[in-house]
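Lecture notes, continued. The same structure-token format from the folding unit now serves as the input rather than the output. Read the line below as a description of shape only.
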């Protein structure tokens, strides 16, 4: 690390601007594996599904805040398009958080949370014909969202990294991996 500090800077950080950014929090950016110029992210921007809610998830127009919805934006001719929200079946009044894609890019993994440090994990295949009478089904993953495991990254179809505070570690959230044999 000390050697890297002495090397010339090879990268720069730049804000992507107010087309994507809002007064809310934009989090969990994930590039699309199938669309080279598309980014998926979560945001609790004004107008998110469910309106303003308190910490219990109840409507509170006066003191509440928006929970996160999932969005995407395309980079066209040097500019980001205004964010497009996901369909109502996927964006709920709870925190809806983009997680990652499988290697082929045809399955999106996302989390749904009330903000209480627990997350239920789901998947979506971007099927055009959504069945609104059928609710999304939880996906079986090696981490335990109900115990607070979060922020997973699919390295490949047999290796997943995630953060956990309930597994034996060094304190707080530590990084773990799970490998499918």
């Amino acid at each position: 690390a000390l050697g890297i500090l002495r090397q010339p800077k090879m990268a720069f950080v730049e804000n992507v601007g107010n087309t994507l950014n809002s007064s809310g929090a934009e989090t969990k950016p994930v590039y699309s594996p199938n669309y080279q110029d598309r980014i998926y992210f979560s945001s609790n921007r004004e107008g998110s599904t469910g309106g303003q809610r308190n910490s219990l998830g109840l409507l509170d127009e006066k003191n509440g805040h928006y929970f996160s919805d999932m969005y995407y934006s395309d980079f066209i001719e040097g500019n980001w398009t205004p964010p497009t929200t996901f369909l109502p079946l996927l964006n709920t009044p709870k925190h809806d958080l983009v997680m990652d894609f499988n290697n082929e890019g045809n399955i999106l993994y996302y989390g749904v949370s009330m903000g209480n440090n627990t997350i239920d994990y789901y998947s979506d295949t971007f099927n055009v014909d959504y069945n609104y009478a059928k609710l999304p089904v939880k996906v079986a993953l090696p981490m335990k969202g109900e115990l607070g495991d979060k922020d997973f990254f699919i390295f490949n179809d047999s290796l997943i990294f995630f953060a956990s505070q309930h597994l034996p570690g060094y304190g707080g959230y530590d990084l773990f991996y799970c490998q499918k044999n």
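Point for the exam: The chain has a mean pLDDT of 87.
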